[in-house]
Amino acid sequence: MSFLRPDPPPASFSTEASGTGSVALRDNYGTVATNVILPRDASWPVRVGLVPRLADCFQDRSLEGNSDFAAVEETVPGGSTTLLSGMGGVGKTQFAASLAERLWRDGQLDLLVWISATSRAGILSGYARAGLAVAAPGVQGTDAEADAAQFHGWLSATDRRWLIVLDTLERSADLQGLWPPSRDLGRTVLTTRLRGVALNGPDQRLLQIDTFTAAEGAAYLQARLEGHPDLADDIDGVVTDLGSLPLALGQASAFLLDEHVPCSQYRTRWADRRVRLDDLMPGPEDPNGLPDDYQRTVAVTLSLSVEAADRARPAGLARPVLEMASVLHPAGIPASLFTTEAAHNWLTHQCSNTQVNGAGVIHSALRSLHRLNLMTVDSSNVIVHALVQRVIRETKTDEELTDLAWAAADALAEEWPEVANDRDYAQRLRDNAATVYGYGREVLLHPDIHPVLAQAASSLGESGDAVGAVAAYERLHADIVRMPNHDSGSALNLRHLMARWQVRAGNPSEAVATNAALLPALIEVKGPEHPLTLATRNNLAQAQGESGNPDAAVSAYRQLLPDLQRVLGPSDPLTLVARLNNAHWRGVAGGPAGAAAEYEQMLDDFEHVLGPDAFETMVVRNNLALLKGLVDVAGAITDAQAVLEKQLRELGPEHPSTLKTRSNFATMRAKAGDLIGSIEAHRQLLADRARVLGPEHPDTLLTRANIADLRGTAGDPSGAAAAYEQILVDQLRVLGPSHPDVTISRQSLHEWREQAGEGRPPIAADGGVSTLGIGESGDGGPCTDASAEGILTSGPVNAETAVDVSDTGLVAVEGDSTAPISTCVNGSEHRPKI
Question: Are 236 and 216 in contact (CB under 8 A)?
Fold first, then answer.
């Protein structure tokens, strides 16, 4: 219907612009009349443009601390410009529509203007239509730019309450000279995937719109599937898989309903990498189309953002950066990974049109992706939504994806520090290693094991989870032996590394069995003089000593050392490590006499060959400081403090070797007369070991024993005995009845009971009362006095021990196996008998 100068519409109508010089009239029932020429005096309130309808089951969401939209005036206060920024699909337009409708419904607006801001022409056209709708002076309906200027002037002078919504701004330059004015009675809301300095200005506030929270996503999907309980069998899982992205959840829920597919089956399809994203969402060509008036699928929405980023400077680099990020962990990639030499080489190879001249250009590409909300980048971390990653991966062939995984693994291996002092950072690296392994499993295992896999598994152990490290190596070994034509040498190397962590996990007997079974296989496959074979002999001897058989360890080292010196040479790191371990177990088996001179000589050799800051050199210094403590407590404390300061600086406060030195340093404080300080230091150490290593790790149990002994020495033998009763129960369960620590704890319990006047018999292997006398052991275990446990000092209860084992980290050895060869190194630890 068409009218010429009709009567003003009744109050129950609102007006919506539909073209130059005309508006549409919408009544309370939604009826629309077009091509209406308004009189010079508009009827208020006025609506210009079509506000998108809210999605089915629209969810109120938290924003800047507000739990919902109840305080709209606080979210969009008068006189403000609010920029809603976020990646495609987070619901920025829905946010703005809800804000606009609430302000309109609450009677707080005289004018509501909704403009599609995807281009400058669209913004000018929207302003011009609004100028006609409000009968702004000077608006003629013939020149959009002139009419827009007149409307802009009207906004600056009017006493009407207005809201301008600029939806989906693509380029900040499109608003040059067109930003709505700042007026107490005016509000502006702008939605954009952009963020950056160009959008900053006076009275402008940028609000980052994120995905749903897990609870919001679950509530939305539950509401969408209401009435279909058979489909809602794993709502939380679907929300997690889709990264809580509102657009994805909306389209996925339509798919679930249309196809009558339960959430569990949807997740199975989602996990199948052969299934593309478009096959898991409805398409615009489907009979029902896309839900909630969406115009684009998730894949198209995100792809358009990627294309825009790739056009921005440095042109052509954004997509390759996203490609590398697509096979890494979405919740946190180290930003410096993208500027490693490996990443730089790969990005240069991918960018034929852009010269990647150093880290600055790569940083610019990261910032461009950040400005377009395809990444969140700060000084140290990069976050990418999992759906952005999937859209990128689906553009790659299988061969391209495996090449990409190898390149990302190279960059991650280069990024990995020798010592990761920051536990959170180390966890991020492990998360990324697990993710890239998922996308490049076969290429990272065959024909050679990629170094990052061993780095990740060993890092887990270095963080204190030695049991987890053993499990990680077991999984890698199982994966590689399942592969046809796998490299037997690589599989053997993984077993070698697993055995190393079995010792650290407090299971030396298992390590003896693993190394003993591994050794003949290595001799057959690699030969008796291969470095991996020699390293396994070292680790077998070390495990024998740690499992309570120091004589076997000494005998094994007596045979191993000549072979090492002949094959590798006296200055080879493996030869030096074996010398260190041999000296330790000789001291355990035969006492510490003459050991100090041997350690002095070793220290010179280690400093010359490995350097003063090498981990192995620190172990030598630590053991030498312990020996000095037998005759020179003050000197030992000075040396131990120097070692501890270096370890804190080089290894961090929670590295197992640092914890060991802290134990020794606390013990020496007691010897020097500071019993209270020693007890407090041991208690702090116990809390850290329980947290880092676990409450049942042998080191943690040893610290509990040290505290019990110090408690008895301080005058509370009953308390010491009571503590040992529980310690012995735990040690028997964890270590077994034949372990040297169990033998010493039995003796300590007996002696503290005697001092307390209790005189009860010791605890037996099963936790009950033993009929064995002190000096005996059950189950054929070694009957040892304190001297069998290591470096000794005198004391009223029993001698101090050196029962702890730490390792070198990873010692690289040339060979045909790609994973690094690992050797065990002994670092002594005292039990503080004063």
Answer: no
